[in-house]
Amino acid sequence: MSFASELKTELCKAMPQNSCCLKAECYGLLLFGRSFSKNAITVTTENNAAAHRVAQLTAEISGAIVDITTSVFRRRERRNAFAVAVTGEDQRNAVLACFGHTGNEISLRINRANLENECCTSAFLRGAFLTCGTVTDPVKDYHLEFVVPFMNLAKDLSAIISESFELNLQPGLMNRKGSFVVYVKGSERIADLLTFMGAGNAAMELMQAKMLKEVRNNVNRKNNFETANIDKTASAAAAQVIAIEKILDSSGVSALPEELQELAMLRYRNPEMSLRELGETLSEPLSRSGVNHRLQRIMDIASTP
To answer: pTM to 2 decimals?
Structure first.
């Protein structure tokens, strides 16, 4: 399963507690689907969980009857496509009215009345991403995008992302083969957006991939480790830095026992250092095994709820 597919499956497990957020997510799912008009309300996706999410929320929020059909999308890869559709003109009119649309709009725009509270923005973006979003595998690159069929709709989406105080993002906008792409680049920016939408595990996986690449690069430049041990050492250092970062974000380094504080900051600022180098750099030098023991204590503290 691809990183993007795993991400969407994780997003489908996020269940907002507030009814306003359920409506906002449903709106994002439908508005950015293949069509959202009197003639057709359809969402097409390769993700089974996303298809059932659309059907469930649409029926729950609007009361409309929803159909799901499956077709073979790529025979060689044995991949299916799922089409979710609201059948019947009366049913479609009911869905449109539920979200304040008539179906006669000259230009499809986001009706912000469906984003009642600040908490609704993350739910709305989650719905939009499940329908028209994708993200590159972080092992290859850091790129997330929403592919939108209409220019004004894309501009509205870009504005909502930009206006979110929690995100502090300025997404790009470009035209690609007749579609309008709202995109975000950069590992930290994408991780922030994934977390905001409710995919904390995917965000952590992305940052781990980034950390692993950085550590590998540093190790290769300094040639401190033998080639056969690079992967193992880099992965361990990345995990240690992430654990320390978690402690810094939650309670600060002062929450650690005094004997661990100096080592924690030294590892955090020098992910490329070997255990021996860390021990020699400490104000009170430690052996390699002593450093390893203390780093393990730090990771145990970080993993404690």
So the answer is: 0.71
